[in-house]
């Protein structure tokens, strides 16, 4: 059962997940399998919540960093804005925020494309 849930989660469009999970649940025939489906569904729901929290964290850090940079340095190069908006690494965003605290120039923040 866990393989079916993983297949739905990784291979299907997120908008299809609910309906496909319902179909899996209705297809099981034994009580043991129903319990397994229920547990897997909860696990997947937890995974979605965690992903949502991560996305919120990324978005809030991006917004804060851009706001602070614009307050201190006014105009930002488009490449810098793009790098921040496309960054998917919480640790990297935190490092840039930390560097901002003591940076006297935009270059000292260290926002450069990864090599």
Topology:
Elements: H1 2-11, H2 17-27, H3 31-73, H4 78-86, H5 90-102, H6 106-109
Helix pairs in contact: 1-2, 3-5
What is the total tally of β strands? Answer: 0
Rg calc: 21 Å
Q: In percent terms, what proportion of residues is strand?
A: under 5%
Identify the quaternary structure here: single chain
What is the arithmetic mean of pLDDT? 82
Q: Class by helix and strand content?
A: mainly alpha
User: What is the domain total for the residues?
Assistant: 1
Number of helices: 6
SSE order: HHHHHH
**Could you give a short account of the major beta sheet?**
none
Gap between N and C termini: 42 Å
Shape: rod-shaped
Report the helical percentage.
Answer: over 70%
Contiguous low-pLDDT stretches (5 residues minimum) are: none
